[in-house]
From TrEMBL:
Its EC number is 3.4.22.15. This is Putative cathepsin L. Belongs to the peptidase C1 family. One of its GO terms (molecular function) is cysteine-type endopeptidase activity. The keyword Hydrolase applies. GO terms for biological process: proteolysis. Keywords: Hydrolase.
């Protein structure tokens, strides 16, 4: 959803680095390849920004964090959470905020 929001704001589609989050967002509660939550990734991005895929490519494994703040191309200032199971709140978030991240317990 963050890439979509970036596109809506700047008109350019840019791929953000998943590996940056896998390696570096442990400080916010994520667990690398063992998983995590979008809000923890967003907390990391608020504090640090995020690199693009081309600067911090995906390796499909936990690695040492090599984040380079000078390569960060975007950040966010906040995010909105909707109550679990509240379809109306989800619709309003899409209408008022734009693209959303969802988690499905399957």
């Amino acid at each position: 959803s963050l890439e979509s929001m970036y596109f809506l704001k700047y008109g350019t589609l840019k791929s953000m680095s998943e590996q940056n989050l896998v390696d570096c967002s442990w400080c916010c509660g994520n667990q690398g390849c063992n998983g995590g939550w979008p809000y923890q990734a967003y907390d990391y991005i608020i504090k640090n920004g995020i690199e693009g895929e081309s600067d911090y490519p995906y390796t499909a494994q936990d690695d040492t964090c090599t984040y380079d703040a000078s390569q960060s191309f975007t950040s966010i200032s906040s995010y909105v959470e909707t109550p679990s199971g509240d379809e109306i709140a989800l619709q309003e978030a899409v209408q008022n905020e734009g693209p959303v991240s969802v988690c499905i317990d399957a």
